[in-house]
Amino acid sequence: MDAANLSEGFRGGPGVTQDKIYLGVLSDLSGPFASGGKNVTEGNRLFVDKVNSAGGVCGRKVELIVRDHGFDTEKGRAEYLSLEPQVLGFVQLVGAKVAQSIEDDMLHQQILVAPTSWKSALLDNPYMMVVGATYKVDIMNGIEYLVRQGLLNRGDTVGHLHISDEDEYGDDAIAGSTFAVRQLGLNLTTAALKDADPDMSPGIASLKQAGAKAIVLSTNPRQTASAVAAAAQLGLTVPIIINNPGFAPELLQGPLATVMERQVFVLSSVAPFDAAIAGPRQVAAAYRSTFPQGAPSMAVNYGYLVGLSFGAVLKRACQRKDFTREGVLKAFREVESVESGGTSVPLRFSITGRPSATRTFVLRPDAKVAGGLTVVADQFESEVSRKAGR
2-22, pLDDT tens digit by residue? Predict the structure, then answer.
């Protein structure tokens, strides 16, 4: 769409009409991260509903076009190529593998994409809107938190069980644990797995044999359940820290819930669903009204936070009267602070290659609360992550 098709002096681009702005959602609604993908999409919808109820952006209603790739990279790429000409940008794209498979096209088409991935390498792409701290930063913050709490001491061994695939999040998390243990005088032992491996007991057994005093899990939720159950069966009662994609509220069912509540810490730069914080409270109220039969998690808050971030970009583009993709990128790099009522620290997107946030909530599983998580440390930033830079 060219400038002649828009009124009031606006410059336009794909996905923008006289009365609509179309945004893409490319999610996992049927694969290993389906529960989180559904919640992120619900959070996206809550934001869009709020924007549209206030009149939209520059008088244009925002509309989401949603596709499910089931965490299949080839299907994700195909869905992206189908949607790309129809939308101004993507407010959700699940999976680092999918994001990297379409990177060349993103750069060519100059389309802004918010990946539901926190892999550090994505920061190098100027069109990637990475909302929150990276996996690497979260793990560094989490390990130093255990040290400060006296749950790890100098000379102790940390065991890290991770998905081993350079296009997914396990290797980025390993970079974080490797840097952290060196800085803190700890040792590291690792156990690798594929993203489809169902049984974590061999890996947990090897970490126990290595004398691990704490375990890091960079796994999907099904693997997390297997790993925590294996630790219980082996009598391994050490603290376990988990990257946020590895947790889902359904893990707090049956006897596993007791072990989760006793041993597990979840790391996230986004506040949990039921947090006693202004921003999450507003989102929770909207969620219960809009999705009364829904099963929420902190992924709802994340989806809403991405909406706030994309909304700040669209607001700036509106001020510029420039909805071309080039104009949207310029607007993106002018966003100095996205305020979210405490859902995260204020997010900054104006520096390419730097995380938009470097602080991590340390959370504990709790079956009694909606979303299954409570805050034990509020937006914690470690000395280790400051030294690492990103």
Answer: 433 466 678 888 999 999 999
Locate tokens 């390990």: which residue? 143
Short-list 237, 259, 265, 282, CA closest to 376: 265
Whole-number Å distance between alpha carbons of 140 and 182: 11
Instruction: Judge residue 150's burial from the number of C-beta atoms within 10 Å of its C-beta, 0-12 exposed, 13-18 middle, 19 or more buried.
Output: exposed
With contact defined as beta carbons under 8 Å apart, do 112 and 317 qualify? no
For 34-84, write each residue's pLDDT tens digit: 888 999 999 999 999 999 999 999 999 999 999 999 999 999 999 999 999
CB atoms within 10 A of CB 9: 8
Q: Which CATH architecture has domain 135-268+361-388?
A: 3-Layer(aba) Sandwich (3.40)
pTM: 0.92
Q: Do the domains spanning 3-133+275-357 and 135-268+361-388 agree at the CATH topology level?
A: yes
Dihedral, CA of residue 318, residue 322, residue 324 and residue 329, to nearest 10: -70
Rounded CA-CA distance 55/286 in Å is 18
